[in-house]
Amino acid sequence: MAYLSYKGVGISAMAAAVPRTVINNYEYTQFFPKEEVKDVVDKIGVFERRFTDADTCSSDLCFAAAEKLIADNNIDRSEIDLLVFISQTPDYRMPATSVILQHRLGLSNSTIAFDINLGCSAFIYGMTVVYAMMHQSGLRKALILDGETRSKVYSAKDRRTAFIFGDAGVAALVERDEKFGESTFSLNSDGSRENLIKINAGGYRNPSTPETLQEKVVDEYGNIRSEEHGYMNGGDVFTFVNREVPRDIKNMLEYTQRDKDSFDYLVFHQANNFINTHVAKKLKLDTSKIPSTIEKYGNTSSVSVPLTIVSELKDKMAGEKSLLLSAFGVGMTWATAVVPFVDLKISEIVEV
Amino acid sequence: MEKEFIAKLKEILEIEDRELNLSDEFRTYEEWNSLAYLSVIALFDEEYDIQIEEVEFKKLRTVGDLIAAAQNK
Fold first, then answer.
1. pTM given for the model
2. Burial class of residue A70, CB neighbours in 10 A (0-12, 13-18, 19+)
3. For residue B12, what is the nearest residue in chain A, using CA coordinates?
4. Is A233 in Cβ contact with B54 (below 8 Å)?
5. From the CA of A155, how many Å to the nearest CA of chain B?
6. Can you give the residue range of the structural domain that contains B52?
7. Under 8 Å CB-to-CB from A277, ≥6 apart: which residues?
8. Which of A65, A252, A268, A337 has CB atoms 3.0–4.6 Å from A171's, for a disulfide?
9. Strand pairing category for A80-86 and A21-24
10. Distance between CA atoms of A170 and A16, rounded to whole angstroms?
11. Terminal alpha carbon distance of chain B
12. Any residues with CB less than 8 A from the CB of A114 and at least 6 apart, and which?
């Protein structure tokens, strides 16, 4: 078991953008009967989420969040030396969306820019990559831009995924400063579970064809999707999470010699309320310290951890705060982090 | 254990008007659906510390099978 630790690097400011279109899940009934929808929605606890229109991408949400971050914090664009874009819904298969954002944000050509494609735990993974680069001398400021438009990934006719996912983008400013104490990360992967959450076709293993775009009934419940829609085996994801996530958190607490009640906040990936409630109960966590956005933004994949910080912890992060972050998802990958924040500046959420 | 499990299963399925038998094939219950499945695997985890995957769960047919699986540490 490996742990990554950094000192003197941290996130100093954050902003987020969400689409203005609100989906009321109880009324998302074009393909399923209202009573059935109500049972599903009550179970997963996603009452609203946001959907982009056809012309808006993850990068547009991140661009809006980044502009807000830069304006609110008077950031000198010429000091941004690193831009990492985290997403599984990029603009194109190539070039990397980070590079397009470098130009669009008016950053210099000496900016280091690349994408990270990983899924729900990617923000925590991305933090370690950016912290590592910032830990070296040379770079002044870094931007983590993390956006997802999961509304475009899943079939509205597949009840296993139709009611869970939403769209959002965040921007985080990473700086080197003595004021930041130690951050510790545990990152994990299990590729034997690649089939639990997947888009089977449209890559290079199973290239896009007219057949892969064809919608069809896929199971005994009559769920309908194509091979280019995402699918999820929710039951086995639940079982997997119950086995791995509490263990990773317990090991992290032991390694960092911290008590579960010693954190100011514990921020979890907003998978769905059923999983999150179960994990919190299993670990006997103080739920008053667990902010939640699942009810209003749904599962926004890698964006959900930072979005929950921006949405729920604004005006609560003055001074030094210690947070535990936990995320899991497609891969499977899962990650736990113990992170200090010092006077974190949080902007108002922008609607796009 | 048996009584306790059946009481919890009835609660999950919201069955109040009848008793369940060990030989019942639970998938034939009108109240059984994919959400009930999630609640049952959550029960396995929470009460019996058993994490059961779908491929294993599909082999269970009766209420008695569920109880046996929950006891199988």
1. 0.95
2. buried
3. A43
4. yes
5. 18
6. 2-71
7. A45
8. A65
9. unpaired
10. 4
11. 14
12. A84, A85, A96, A98, A99
pLDDT score of B73: 57
Q: Which residues contact A160 (CB under 8 A, 6 or more apart)?
A: A223, A231, A232, A233, A234, B34
Catalytic residue among A120, A188, A273, A276: A120
pLDDT digit string, tens, across residues A42-84: 999 999 999 999 999 999 999 999 999 999 999 999 999 999 9
Radius of gyration, alpha carbons of chain B: 11
Q: What is the ipTM of this complex?
A: 0.86
Report helix angle A122-135 to A304-312, nearest 10. 80
Number of domains observed in the structure of chain B: 1
A332 prior amide bond cis, ω within 30: yes
Give the nearest partner residue to A243 out of B34, B42, B51, using CB atoms.
B51
Nearest Cα residue to A297 out of A150, A152, A166, A145:
A166
CATH number of the structural domain spanning residue B48: 1.10.1200.10
Q: Average pLDDT of A174-200? A: 97
Answer yes or no: A62 catalytic.
no
Q: Note whether A238 contacts B54, CB cutoff 8 Å.
A: no
CA atoms of A29 and A24, how far apart (whole Å): 10
Chain B residues in contact with chain A using a Cβ-Cβ cutoff of 8 Å: 34-35, 37-38, 41-42, 45-46, 51-54, 57
Residue B49 tokens read as: 């510390």
Q: Is residue A269 among the annotated active site residues?
A: yes
C-alpha span between A319 and A344 (Å, rounded): 8
Closest Cα of chain B to A235: distance in Å? 6
Across chain A, mean pLDDT equals 97
Do the beta carbons of residue A158 and residue A224 sit within 8 Å?
yes
The reported pLDDT for the residue numbered A1 is 72
What is the residue whose two structure tokens read 């009848």? B18
**Under 8 Å between Cβ of A268 and A327:** yes
What is the identity of the amino acid at A292? S
